[in-house]
Structure formats: C-alpha cells, structure tokens
Amino acid sequence: MSLSRFLPDRFTCALVITVALASVLPCRGVTAHVFDLLTDAAIALLFFLHGAKLSREAAIAGLVHWRLHLTVLASTFVLFPLLGVLLRPLLSPLVTPALYIGVLFLCTLPSTVQSSIAFTSMARGNIPAAICAASASSLLGIFITPLLVGVILQSHGQGGMSWDAVGSIVLQLLVPFVAGQVAQRWIGTWVSRHRGLLAYVDQGSILLVVYTAFSAAVLQGLWRQMPLPVLGGLLVVNAVLLAAALLITRYGSRALGFGREDEITIVFCGSKKSLASGVPMAKVLFAGHPLGAIVLPIMLFHQMQLMTCAVLARKYAQRAAKVRPKLEPQPEQLA
Q1: Nearest to 238 by CA among 103, 38, 40, 57
Q2: Which of these, 82, 143, 124, lies nearest to 107 by C-alpha position?
Q3: Which residue of 16, 95, 139, 262 has the fewest CB atoms within a 10 Å radius of its CB?
Q4: How many CB atoms lie within 10 A of CB 71?
C-alpha cells in the first residue's frame, strides 16, 4: 500500500498553513472586519451553488429507500450527540472545557456530501441512496444543528440558542440555498459542468473562516491555553468518537437487515461530519465564544475520517471483488 495514501491532501496542507499564518499574522481591527465581510459573502455563495447543484429529481428518486435514510439521519443527529454526552465523563478530562464544547458541536453537525458519495462509490455501495441521504443530511442540518447546539449550550450553563442566531443561520445559509434551487433551472447545468468552481468556493470559504477564527483566538491567547498534551487528548477524543460511530453503523445496519450495498452507504454517510457546513455554522452560532477552540475538533476530525474511511472503502471494495467472481456463472455452467 502506497505511503502517499496516508499523507494529508492539499486542502489539509492549506488548512495547516492558514492556521500557521493566523498564529503569526492574525488579522485585527479594520482588516478583521473586511475579512468577516468576505467570509460572509463566500459562505452565501457556497450555499447558493450547493442549492443550484443539488438535483431535485435525484433526491426525490432516492426517497423511496426511507429506512436507510432514517438510519443515516438517526446516526448523524441522534447517535453522535448521545455519544458526545454519554462519553463526556470519560473523554472531557482529556481536553479543555472550550474544546469539549467544540467536540459536542462536532457531534451535532450534518454528514458530508462529496466525500460520503465518493467513498460509497469506491466501496461499491448504493450510490443513489448515498446521494439522497448525504444531501438530506446537509439540508436538514441547517435546522437540526442549531436546535441541538441550543440544547448543548443550555446544558453547559451558557444559555440557550437565541432567535437572532437562528435567524442568522436562515439568512446566511438557507436563503442562498433556496435561491440556488430556484435558479437551478437556468444555471444548474452550468454549475454541474464547472464542479471545480464549487470546490474552490467550498474550500476558500472554509479557509477564510478558519483564518478569521484563529486570528481572533490567537489574539485571545489560544495557544498559551492549549499545550501539546491537550492536542493529543483531542486526537484521542476524536478517534474514540469515529471508531464508535463506524462500529455501530456497521453492525447496527446488519442487525437491521440491510444488505451489503446499503450497509456501505450507512457506514460512510452515517459516520461523517461536514467541515464545509460546520465552520460557517460555528461562525454564526458561537459568536462571542472562543471560535478557534470550537472549530479545531472539526478540522482534526475531518482529516481523521478521510484517512480512516479511505482505508475502509478499499477493504470493502476488495471484499466485493472477491465475492463477485463466485457469483458469476462459470464457463461450464453457460455451456
């Protein structure tokens, strides 16, 4: 197996460089205000393009597999938050209170779209169902994540979610998405042909939010409050959550009677958390909180889930390749 498959991708390297830049040259004052405006515009454009890209026909066609979609949604918005809360006595001593708030926020996020579909395809799973499940998770997360975050903040004595925050989520994320859906009949084909544009907007908006978030956090003394043992503890916390989610979705789907292809879809759609949705939401939902500590768990979990799921997808594909020849009729059977 090539070592390069375990090395960080270009976007992960860009994230590391952005954090390093924010640590050395944090933006402040007027510059920070300008970056905030650019970030808001990039996020709105991102969700507009996602709305224009999502095919209503594909989503409606996939809805017939409702048991699978309910299982993925339950894993994303029920299983993960329960793991975060129930494992808190075991995991919270490994990190700071602010970081564990970030971990709990991670648990409330929707699934990824692109990588969930890509890994399902690589593992030879149910691709149409993956498209529908991941897209539904991403869209419903605009509503469900703020509600779950409100419950979490209240349980930690930090007040519930304000209506202003909910309104900001609707205005900044949902309105552009709906506008993109409306404009799909005119620009949908063009957006599909220029997927690279969506990738650049996707990654660029994340980098802008990360830079502004870590700039503010560095000015507040983030790295002085976060020694290396705490970062190591955060890696352990993320690893435990990811391992638990992968195991429960894998064996839970089998217990529910799903076939191999559906199991693959549930595993890869139900164990992921979206960095693309999480970072913009954190900017809105945690205004006034130490945002660097909130988004750091998501950034580390993002790379961890990509590396782990890449290995898991190859194993699924290899197993499918071994099974398929046995199912194909032999030459003497065709004679």
Answers
A1: 103
A2: 82
A3: 16
A4: 23
Q: Is 283:209 a contact under the CB 8 Å cutoff?
A: yes
Residues in Cβ contact with 25 at an 8 Å cutoff, skipping those fewer than 6 apart: none
Per-residue pLDDT in tens (0 to 9) along the chain, 335 residues: 454 555 566 777 887 888 889 888 888 888 888 888 888 788 788 778 877 776 666 556 555 678 999 999 999 999 999 999 999 999 989 998 888 999 999 999 999 877 788 788 888 888 778 878 887 888 888 889 988 988 876 765 555 455 555 566 667 767 887 888 788 888 878 887 877 777 777 778 778 877 887 787 778 776 776 777 888 999 999 999 999 999 999 999 999 999 999 999 999 999 999 887 888 888 888 876 777 888 889 888 987 888 788 888 888 888 877 765 554 454 444 43
**For the chain, what is the radius of gyration of the CA atoms?**
20
Distance, CA of 112 to CA of 95 (rounded, Å): 25
The CATH number given to whatever domain includes residue 263 is 1.20.1530.20
User: Is 290 part of any domain?
Assistant: yes
> In sequence order, which residues have a C-beta less than 8 Å from that of residue 326 and are 6 or more positions away?
none
Coil, helix or strand at residue 274: coil
CA 175, CA 153: separation in Å to the nearest integer? 25
Residue 117 in tokens: 């579909």
> Domain of 212?
9-320
Contacting residues for 187 by C-beta, under 8 A, at least 6 apart = 52
Q: How many domains does the chain have?
A: 1
Distance CA 301, CA 226 (A): 17
For residues 197 and 191, is the Cβ–Cβ distance under 8 A?
yes
Does residue 32 belong to any structural domain of this protein?
Answer: yes
Handedness of CA 217, 235, 100, 44 (dihedral sign): positive
In a domain, 234, yes or no: yes
246 located within any domain: yes
